[in-house]
Each structure stands twice: as structure tokens, then as C-alpha cells.
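Supplementary Methods, section 5.1.

A reviewer requested that the exact input to the structure prediction be made available. We therefore reproduce it here, unchanged from the version used in the analyses.
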Amino acid sequence: MTAWSYSAIKTFEQCPKKYFHLKVAKDIKDEPGEAADYGTAVHEAAELFIKDGTPIPEQFAYIKPVVERLAAIPGDKHAELKLGLRKVSGDYEPCGFFDKGVWWRGIADLLIIDGYKAYCVDYKTGKSARYADTKQLDLLAGAVFTHFPEVVTIKSALIYVVSGELIRKTHVITEKSQYLSVFDEQLERLDAAMDNGVWNAKSSGLCPWCPVKTCENWKPRRK
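The structure derived from this sequence is encoded cell-by-cell as follows.
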């Protein structure tokens, strides 16, 4: 199986046919829209502020109180930290993001290591935390425990910088394996699709935004 990420497995859950074209055949590209570009700019502004105090651009001034509080937390700060894991004999070992044999890839928007404690933050630019999924935090926590074995507890959070909502979760080292297996069921289905070559389309309200316009479920967006 090729390396996977949280976003990749969520794409497979959304529609196996879409996953096939984007991740396997790679014959279609999913061009980022305005929302994605905006999210990238917000992440970059937060990263530069945390790293070297670069002033927050005026259009993103609303995130300043959040990143200032995060910058004040003691510890070694890692912004936009790329993490990789290999799966070896049923266990996990750290590796580089693009290393050979990488099993999973993820990026921590902000990781703060303070001795045996850590703080892991993922910024969200969505308007609401209604559909927040803490499984993303679980995966990152499992990777942090693997890469930083001195850490035994992590305070994790999804921070919705637009709405001001905060989804918290505490992770502990004794649950590392459980955190890294939260998508085992979906990964089994993905492996089966890879083996069988069957990528069924799944209809949803997101079909008009899908780049796979040859799919029977695709239809143009209403104007």
C-alpha cells in the first residue's frame, strides 16, 4: 500500500472513485479553490509569527490573539512540522516525510515540546466546528509519541480561528497504538480496493465540487 494521510483517507471515505483518480491513476488534479488558498495563507501567517515574530497581515488580524497565546507557551516550538511513520512488524517507527517505506504522513501546524509534555495544534479556517473530527489529532499524537519518546502526555486542539471555537483532547502515551489505528477499518477497505481494482463512485452533496467530471454522479454547481 502507498503512503497515506488523514486527508487521503478522508477522500477515500468520501468517494473511492475520486480517490482512485487523484491518488492512484493521478490522471486528474484537484485544483485548490479560494477557500483552500485562504487557509494556506492563514497557516503561513501563523507559522511565520511563531517562528520569527513576523507581523500578522492586517487581513488576518483576528488570529493574532490566538497565535500570541500559543507563542507564550514555554517549550521548543515546531511550526508546520512534517512527520512520517513506518509500520514494522506491527509496531511503528519514526521516519522522514518522504523516506522510503513511509506508511503515514502528517503535518502538525504547531507542536510545542516542553519536557515530558507537549501541545499539538491544528488550525481550521472553516466557519464552524460542527463537523470537527478529532481523529486527525489522534494520528498526530501517535506520531508525536513515536518521534519524541520523552513525551508522555499531549494537550491537543483543533482551533477554529474564524469562529473562535476550540476542540480539545488530551492524549497519553499508553494509548499510542489506539491513536494510530483509528482508521484501520478504512485502510482495510482501501487495501481491498487496491487489490481488486474496484473503485465505486459514491454520490453525495459534494459531487458538484468534485474534479472527476467523467463520473456518473457529477453535475455542475448551481449558480
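The longest strand covers residues 76-88. These observations are discussed further in the main text.
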